[in-house]
């Protein structure tokens, strides 16, 4: 499935991983929001945790067609995501993301894996407003 990516932390413009992973590989980057999730602080990066009623703000990134496969692999490695691995910190899932103009699109997003999500819900620090860039 070739869909855009929804990024909400260090991959956003201005984040330290943006230039390392996205520069030269994207066709477009635009503001977006994902409903049904909240953000928690992580050790230098955030975690999106699926939670009804929440909203996460970030960017919807469309890869250049010729860079899509390479970018998907690079982001999976960055997030240490291996399909089906119970040690994953993140899971890559397809979710609906709303553009600034109100239209919705399916996008890949890395959300906290179940064990990580449970730990964060029990004692994590919630990012009020769901925007990691304006958390302080």
From TrEMBL:
Signal peptide segment: none
Classification via Pfam families: GGACT
CDD domains: GGCT_like (cd06661)
Molecular function terms from GO: transferase activity
Keyword Transferase: yes
Coiled-coil residues: none
Residue ranges of domain Gamma-glutamylcyclotransferase AIG2-like in the record: 5-133
InterPro entries: AIG2-like_dom, GGCT-like, GGCT-like_sf
Keyword field: Transferase
Name of this protein: Gamma-glutamylcyclotransferase
Organism: Streptomyces olivochromogenes
Organism ancestry: Bacteria, Bacillati, Actinomycetota, Actinomycetes, Kitasatosporales
């Amino acid at each position: 499935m070739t869909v855009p990516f929804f990024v909400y932390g260090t991959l956003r413009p201005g984040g330290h991983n943006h230039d390392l992973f996205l520069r030269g590989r994207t066709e477009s980057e635009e503001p977006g929001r994902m409903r049904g999730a909240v953000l928690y602080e992580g050790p230098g990066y955030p975690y999106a945790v699926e939670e009804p009623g929440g909203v996460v703000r970030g960017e919807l990134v469309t890869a250049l067609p010729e860079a899509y496969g390479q970018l998907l692999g690079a982001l999976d490695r960055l997030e240490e995501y291996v399909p089906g691995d119970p040690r994953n910190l993140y899971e890559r899932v397809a979710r609906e993301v709303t553009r600034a103009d109100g239209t919705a699109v399916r996008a890949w997003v890395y959300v906290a894996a179940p064990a990580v999500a449970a730990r964060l819900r029990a004692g994590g620090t919630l990012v009020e407003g769901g925007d990691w860039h304006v958390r302080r």
